[in-house]
Structure formats: C-alpha cells, structure tokens
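Lab meeting, action items carried over

1. Structure of the two-component assembly. Owner: GW. Status: complete.
Input record:
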Amino acid sequence: MSSERELLPVASGRRTASAVGALLKPRAATMATAMAALVAGTAIGLTVPPLIGRIVDLVTEGRDPGAITWIVLLLAGAALAEGVLSAVGIAQLAKAGESALAGLRERFMARALRLPLDQVERAGSGDLTSRVTNDVTVIAEAVRQALPAMVRSLLIIGLTLGGLAVLDWRFLLAALIAVPVQLHTVRWYARRATPLYATQRMAVGAQQHDLLGTIDGAQTVRSFRLTADHVARVDTRSRAAVELLLRGIALQTRFYSRLHISEYLGLCAVLIVGYALVRDGSATIGAATAAALYFHGLFGPINIALSLVDDAQAAASGLTRLVGVADLPDTGTSAPLVDETPLPDETPLPDETPLPDETPLLDEASVEVTGVSHGYTPGHPVLHEVSLSLAPGERVALVGASGAGKTTLGKLIAGVHRPVEGSVRVGGVEPEPGKAVALVTQEVHVFAGTLAEDLRLAAPEATDDDLRSALERVGALAWAEELPDGLGTEVGDGGHSLTVAQAQQLAFARLILADPSIVILDEATAEAGSAGARALERAAEAALEGRTALVVAHRLSQAAAADRIVVLSGGRVAEAGRHEDLIAAEGGYAALWSAWSAQRQ
Amino acid sequence: MSLTGRDVLLRSIGRQRRHVVLSSFMIAGHQAGEALVPFVIGVVIDQAVSGGTGRLAFWLGVLGAVYAGLSFNYRFGDRAAERASEQAAHELRLDVTRRVLDHRGGAETGRLPGALVSIATSDAARVGVVNLCVPAALAACAGLLVTAALLLSISLPLGLLVLLGTPPLLWLSHRLGKPLEDRSETEQEHAAAASGVAADLVAGLRVLKGLGAEDAAIAKYGATSRTSLHATIKAVRAEAAYNGMMLALNGAFLALIALVGGRLAAGGDITVGQLISTAGLAQYLLTPLTTFSWVNGEFAQGRASAGRIASVLSSPPAVTPGPMAVPEQVTGKITLRGVGGGPLREVDLDVAPGECLGVVATDPAAATALLACLGRAADPERGTVELDGVPLTDLALEGLRGAVLVSAHDARLFDGTVRENLGPVTETVLAAAGADEVASALPDGLDSVLDERGRSLSGGQRQRVALARALAADPPVLVAHDPTTAVDTVTEARIAEGVRRLRRDRTTILVTTSPALLAATDRVVLLHEGSITAQGAHAALLSDNPIYRTAVLS
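Predicted assembly:
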C-alpha cells in the first residue's frame, strides 16, 4: 500500500568521492604501479605511427632498404613492450579496484543487514534489494570493464595529442577542430540519455516484476480464466520496454552519427595541414603520415571513452546509494515515526539514548510493557495504553480480531519499533531486535546454500549433531535425511525446493539453534493449511519449550494451552487472565470460546 | 509436433525477415565504408607527395562521401537490426507466457517460476540477438571482400601476405588465448556468486532479524565476497594477459607488413600512400574477423536459449481439452467414480446441485490431489469425474473452468488495486468474504494498490480478498481449499454464514478442517486413506467418528 516512501539515504557526491578515496588509499602503491605501467605501455605503443612515418621518409629519401629492417625491429620490440606493460597495468589496476569494491560491498552489507527493520520497511524492501543487486552489479561491471577501458582510452587520447604536438603544433590544432563538435554531442547525448535510461530501467524492471507475478500465479490465472488479461498485460509492458530500448538505440545511433561528422572534420583538417606543411617543407611526408595515423588511431579510444560516460554515470550514482547506506551508523532501533526528521546528508544519526545504568537487572527473560501507545501514521494510533508483563518462562497467548494490534504489539516487544508513548522493557532494558527476543512470523525464507549452512546462520558454532537434534525436535529430520545429499543438499533459490511447511519447520529448527530466552510467534503456523498447521503447531511447541513466549494465536486451542491469555480489542487490552478465569468471567473471551467450541460439538 | 531449438531460431529470424534483410544490406554498406577510410587516407598522402590542390580537394570530397555513406548506413542499419532483435525477443516472450498460461497446463512441471521468467526474458533476448548476428556476419563478409579487393589492387604479394597472414594470426591468438579464456570464464562464475548471496540475504532480512542472525549472515557474506574477490582478480589477470598478448601479436604482424611493404615501396613497386593504405587495411581486417568470432559465440548461446524456449513451448500438456462445449445452463452436479492414483485410492462421491459440501481430508496430499482432479489441473490415474453427468475430460477446458472454479489454498493475488484483483464485485460478496473489513482498513479502500502481489496484506486479509474474488466470479460450482486458515475465529464464523447465504442455490465444495466452515455445510465427507470413509452432518460426525474428531479438532 503505497503511501509516502522514505527511501534510504543517498550520499552526496563529495562524500562519495572521499569514501572512494579512503577505500583506495591503502592500495595507493598498487595504483601507482598500475598507472606507471599503463602510461609507459601507451607511450611505447604511440611510437608506432612515427616509426612508420620514418619508413615512409626512408623510402621517399631513397635510402638503403636495410635501414628499414632496424625500424621494423623497433616496431616489433615496441609491440612486445606495449603488450607486457598493458597486461601488468590492467591486472594491477583491477587488483586495486576490485579489492576496494569488495571492501565497499562488505561494509555496505554489514550496515544493510543491521539496518532497523522499520527503516527498511518505510523505504520499501525494493530499495535495499535494488541497491544490493542492481547497484552492486553496475559498479562491479564498471570496475571490471569500464575502468580499465576508460583509463587506457584517456591515456591514448592524451598522449596522442601530445604526440601530434611533438610532430608539429599545427597538427594538434587541426586535430582539436573536432573537439567542439564532440563536446556538444556528448552534452546533447547526456541530456537525453540519462532520463531515458532511467525510464528504460524502470520499464524493464516493471516488466520482469509483472511477468514473475503472472507466471508464479499461472494456476490462479487459469482457474479464474484471466489468461487473455494477463497476456495482454505482459504484451503491453513488454512492448513499452521494447519501445524504450529502441528509443535508446535510436539515440545512440544519432550520437555516433554525429561523432562520424567530428571524425571527418578532424581527419580533413589533419590531412590538409599535412599537405600544406609538406608543400612548404616544414614537415616531412613521414611526419604527415604519422599525424594521419595518430588521428585515425584516436577514433576507437574516443568512441570508447564517450560511450563509457553512461556506465561511469550509472556507476557513480550507484556508488552514492551504496555509500549512503554504508555510512549509516550502526544502530539497533531507529526513532519512532512521529517525531521523525529527514536524515541530514552527512551527519550521522544521533546515537541511541544511553541505557540508564541504574536500572536494576531483572531476570533477562522477563517482559514488561507499560502504558504503550503506538501508531504508524500520526493521528491513527494502533495501540492505546497497553500494559502487559511476562514472567520468565511464561507463555502468553495474544487473542483478538484482525487489526486489533496483535502484530504491532509483538513487533514493539521484539524491538522492531519503539513505542511512541510508554515503555517496553525486556530483562529490564530496551529491547534490541534479535538480541534477547526472537520474532518468528509467517514469512518464511530458505537461504540459498546447503541445509546445514541455512541452519548455521542461527548458530554458527553448531555441530552436525546439534543441527540433527534441532531438526529432530521439530519433526524435520526424516525428510531432511531423505534429501539427495542430506544436510549437505543445496536448498533455497536455485537448489532443492522445499514446501512451505518444510520451510516453516526449518524456521523453528533455527529458533531452537538460536536459543533465545524470549520468543514471539506471530501467526507462524497460519499459512500451511489446516492439516499442515497442526504439525507445525507441534513443531512450534517443541521450539517454545523452556522459553518465555508471546504467541499471537488465531486458533483458540493454542490460546487455551497458554499460561495466560491477553485479549486485544481495538488496540486496547480488553481482558487478561487464565483460560478458566476468563471463561468464568463470561466476557468477550468466553463468548469467543463458546462460539469456537460450539462449532466443535 | 515437438518443437526444436532450431525451429524456434529459424521462426524468430523468419518473423523479422524484412528488418533482417534491410539491416544486412545497410550494415554491409557501413563496413565497406569503414574499410575504405584507411585506403583513402593513403591516397590523400600520395597527393601530398605528388598531386595538386585540386586532386587533394577531390579526394577529401571522396572521403566525405565515404563518411556520409557509412554514417547513414550505420544509423539506419543498426536500428533495423536492433528492432528485429527486440521484436523477436518480445514475440518469444509472449509465446512463452501464452504457453505457461495455457489451459492445458504442463509448462510449469519441473520448472520454478523464476526459471520460467528467465527463459521468457534472458533466453528470449539471446535468441533475439541472433537477428543482430545475421546482418553483422553478412556485413563482415562484405568488409572482408572489399578489403581483399583493395589490398590485391595495391600489390599482389603484399595483399596476399595480409589476407593469408591474418587468419593464422587469429588462429594463433585463439590457441594461445583459449586456456586463459576458459580459466577466466570459470572464475567469473565464482565472482557472480557474491551478488547472488547478497540478494538472498536481503530477501530473508526479516527472518535474519527475527533470530538476531545478522552477524552470522555478515560473516557468511564476507567469506563469499573474499572468495569472489580472489576469483575475480585471477580472472582479470588471465584476461589482461590475453589482451596484452593480442596487442603484441597485432603489433608484430604490423611490423611484418611494414617490413615487406617498406621494401616494396623502396623498390618502387608501390607508392608510400599505398604502403600506408596497406597498414591501415591490415588493422581494419581485424574488425570483420573478430566479428565472426563474436557471431559464433552469440549464435551458440542463441541456439542453447532457443532449445530452452522450445522445450517450454513443446512441454507435454498436463491435461487435454475435450470436444464438447460446456452448456449454458450448468446445474452443478458433480460425480466422482472410482477416482484413484497417488494419495487417492478409490473415491466415489456425489454432490447434488446446490449442495454445500464439506470435505475433510486427513492427508493434505489427498486434498490437493482431489482439487487437482476437480479443476482438471491433472487427470486422475483411474476413474472419472463428471459435471452434470458429462466426464470432465469430454469438456472444453476454458468453459469447464468457468463452470467449476477451484480456488486453491495458495491462490495468488496480483499487482494492482484490490478492485482490479476482485473483478466486478458487489457489497454483498465483499461482506460474505469478510473483505469489506479488509477494504475499510486500507488507506484507499478497494482502490488501494497491492504491492508485491498482496504481500503488504496480512495472511488473513489476503485470504479474504482471495475468497471474495472466488465468490465474485459466481461459478455454478465453487471449490475452495482452506480459505480461512489465517482468519480469526469470529470473522471465520461470519464468513461461513456469509458464504452459505450467498451460494444458497449453487454447488459449493469446501475442502477444509475448519469447524466453523464445516458447521455451515449441508453435509461433510471424510476422506481418509484415499477413500471416503464417512459422511453426514458435521455435528453427527464429530460425536460419532473418532478419526473425524481428531482431524477437525486438535
């Protein structure tokens, strides 16, 4: 439901540049070697046109053909040296660039995975995902391909212009005639290309997203006879993407056509100057030849450099998004939404309010919720002055209609959000997500990799026996051992696919391995269908053993089995107490229970 | 009848033949122009030696004409080729989508949705690129012919040296480069792993946070990233070495041409301008030859992709349509006789028109199998399913699905507003499914946009919207599977009442173990160990049948 998105921060250009500088600094020596090798290699390569010019001069002067052999040997030597030096230079450049990139992406992921969940949710999960996938890929490709090509092209262009000046300053002047046309063309292109490519990327993204929705829901599409609708939808989206791609191609061909004009103008100028200089005797034919070859040799590098401007721009804007997240301070929860202020560009977020030192250290498995009110949009409170406490080891069921605020209360206790008013204390201190309290929801995800790796995310030190016993307790060992490679089977994206119920069992096994003292289960057994739900309830039972637990229950049997029941209604605690007491009180819960059990008698 | 990759490839080129032919001619013109440029430079230099200003102007004019021609041909030839490529990909994308959504089904068997999407996008694009390859290959031939003609016209021995020397040069560089290339490819695969792991961890962010497993995840990513870095550096080193070698080999070949050409020029056999033309043409010659190897690679990829597309397009259907149209008036009588296979042993069942039947299955797999037979997602191995006395296998598929709607437990919602998902819907339908409450809780009511295929809704909200959609379709026979598992008890009881009232006269089959829903049915059957073992009213079964009691009450 798209209300206002508050995207994750983006760093300024200056901050990005200094972050990149800091990443490259430890690699300064490698960078210097790379540049030295590349400059030397390019310079040696650029001796070829004058050497050929020299052969031309030897021929026109009618000299001994034996002299040509010497020059040819020099040409061969130059080729060899250029090859070796450029290989060394590119490899060193890549080493520096790739290590810096690896450093950046690791820092980015370290921050991204520690971002407060409510901040990620406000930005939309797509924001983070697109930074992790698209931006990182674009930058990696730029470092991998565009960077060396760009560096080499720029070196060739710069040194060639120098070479032209050495031959005769008038050659340089002639060559520069092409520059205004090129500059104008690049500016003309960039103005149109940048927005066009942005819409293009969006259109392609939307098309893929839509296609996945349609294909993933093929069964539903057939059942509801929506085939024509969905084919039309895919057609429209795909056609839109194709048209945008072709507009991009049209723009590109116009761009290169304009560059052809600049090539022609420059080439004519250089040839005319050569002609004139040879005629008045101030240059040899060899020099004119070298100038023409120099200029002809510029076409490739200029085209490469200009065409890479796009990649460079895309990489630069990707970098600002990565650095924006990598620069975020490492915090647990973020401030509540109500008094939110936009994140300033370069100052870090204010630190967490320090925990009061004098708080008496209660048993760490207790939960104390006092006078909590909370809402996601100002003026629309979801919870009103809710107070609730869980003693260590106690199991409390949270009951209420959809929208009563059960999930929100669970998230507050887990530390996902901080309450707008009132306080939540876990073991006497403010909860930090994932620290003491584990939150298991109906959302399941099987991490790509082996089954054992998936489980070890919860407990990196766990032995294979630990993993087996956790699976055993949630009733998953049997099917796990039947997988092609047992615990070593690749699961998740690209691996063996597990059913929803199996994935949820895996989630409970992870919970056992993570071994938190407090657990919040939010409809964690709801999605599996009724028959499957019961097996999952048994798995949940095993996972909750010996822990303080708050269970959001929609099956009243779960509620009846709890030590205590809290009934939420319209964001307030309507009733609380033991099952028997609430039945005896004949309030709302008793009515719910009798309706529920009436269906069963 | 089975389609091969070759068929897909040829059809894809054939559909775009106009663009392909046009672009082939134009790009050939472009390449011929590119070959002429270095030749004309040599001629102009000869003018500097011996010609007059008028001749210079003439040749600069020729150079201008060459440029105008190559630029024009490039601009419109490239566009035509890209159009052919993109349109071919678009049409294949639609072919794949149509096949996947086809009422006969079967294309999804053994393929994950993500894999199918990648076939419809990446593979379709790779097949499309073949439409770029064909003109490029023809143009490279044209470039080659023009170069050969120019070289041989300058000097027979020098021309032969270049023409005969270049292929072995490429062969040599290929041979020397091959091991490096192979190494680079395998290591690039390692390198790609890092981004996959990152995306996967972010996709599971909530799960990681819920467990406090961020540190483990960061450590896992760090290790992958390092492995990836080492692989990348090795790959780049191999690539750099290969490129450096190419540079050295080309340079050495140029030196050889300079040696032979220089001696010929010194002997007066050719002019200096012709020597320069030869050097320029030798450099240009690398373009068509590398184009051939590019085309070769793209073609191989295109063929592999076409094979994958062909296998989707010709995947065996899960069910075949029958010859009979479904009559206008369907009374909604369902009859199962001896239905068996998989978890079903022998199911006999009669559902009267207008009856509201509950089905309780002790084995979830049996429930799924039964639903598949009723909706003809698959046919039973044995036995028949009939609608109004006609076997389902005799009926046309689309009409059948209009008459018998199976709303699966995991029925998907689609991107778009709630209203778009529901189709034409009345207040009564919304209220019956409890979806009125869902709509009023959303910021824009029914016009609220569902992100991420409804994942922004809670499980219970999603189920109620899906149920409303099924009720709004108002089919003569509605089969709903576990429609309210994530809905709270109070709402569930209201929904049971609403569904019953709304579908008073129409056949409704509720496959569920929810007491609230079962209490509202006319009759319940118990599907146990593959057969119907008991039937009766919910209350009666609850008191008389222990298996039923265990299945329904936990």
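2. GW to write a short summary for the group page. Key points so far: Residues 214-266 of chain B form the longest helix (53 residues). Chain B is about 65% helix and 10% strand.
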